User: Fold Glycosyl transferase group 1 from Sediminispirochaeta smaragdinae.
Amino acid sequence: MAKQVPDTFRVAIICGKLGDVDGVSLEVDKWIDVLLAQGHEIYTFAGFYPKPLSSIPEERQFVVSDLRFGSEDQLEYENWFFPHLRSGPFRLSDDRKERLLEKLEDQGNRLANELFGMIQRYGIDVIIAQNTNAMPMALLAGMAVYKLSTERRVATIFHHHDFWWERSRFSHNHIEELLGMIMPPAEPGLEHVVLSSYAEHILRSFKRVHPRVIPNCEDFEHPPKKDDYNGHFRAELGFSDDDILIIQPTRIVRRKRIEDSVELVGRFLLRYPELASRVRFVISLYQGDEPDQDYIGQIRSMCKDRKIDLRLISDRVAAQRGNDEQGRMMFTNRDVLVNADLVTYLPVWEGFGNALLEAVAAKVPIVTTTYLVYKTDIKIAGFDNIEIRDIYDEENRLIIPDSAVEEMHRLLQDGERRARMVEHNFEVGAREFGLASLRRLLRETFDDYGDEIRASRKRIEKSRREYPV
Assistant:
């Protein structure tokens, strides 16, 4: 009997932002590459693209401005609904709350109609909603996708990277009933994907849905290596070959606990002053989508007090190689990492840990906290990292043992120990979190959800004939 060829589908990925260096954008890029290789046709609907996606034609990359973060309407909703984000001492009356919710409902309907028109026009079979219904950074997007998936009954795979109740700025809010309904919805016929076994447990407990786990993955088949392009990184950024580059390969947001990395580097310089003149503490990514004007100033001040040579290089880091408007070479985070001597990664919370896997693929030693998902889903794979337990003192400072500082020094001085560690970690990462795992898990997802996608295709075809938007 001939082997049955699996169905392929037209897939629309919906997200507030794509083509950037944040974790969601990077993971979406991997999903797109795998889905294309499996024969699916990919379209993207995003609020904006800092850089066009390289893997699909630009004519299939659509800008839908109401999906974006930080729009005028989104800022208004944030100001009223989320007290931690307010710019003034406002009081939300019942009347104002009702008017705002009515406005959100109306705008959500209009955006859902716009998206459904595009779904009809391009014959989309299934949408993949990337964090739109997990984190309220684009409430309009969440409302519109909710309506598409539950009222229009478009087959939807929700890819949840983290959840609103995990972030203090969103967990305290005036719209918990709404968020409970749409972020994420729990209606039958929807597919949910989470990054970790912990997130799976929480979603089962909170929403009584049964998500599947697809962890962050990394391309260990084509790992970052030194080449003729990134070989210019040190010279281009003003570093010497003798400099010791300790890289913080993340955005500058509080949950990354960069102050703990600063304290760690400061402790290292005090313990080993003979190396102090060579150490550069480099933060590779930008301040991010989590507004906090004081945090970067705090990091600068801490580095100054501890005589740490801080370098912020986000203006030279992009999703793709190339040149900026000034003609300067732009490097990816992978290019940065292959030039690193050590990586600090000490978050208090992560949905998974994209930057950690990137560092493993780049064969760089890592100092990491044992944050929750690291303990439940990453450590058990068998990695050999410098681990600092996620224990904090009465002033909320990470308790850093002397042994972590000593092991940093050993790895910087002992090439054999370093080589054994990074090669071991690379083998573990490739086995547990490589693209082969992602291929298998995505194929299983589409196989299992295929009947619903085919039913959705028929509904959309019928609507196109009878009720065009």
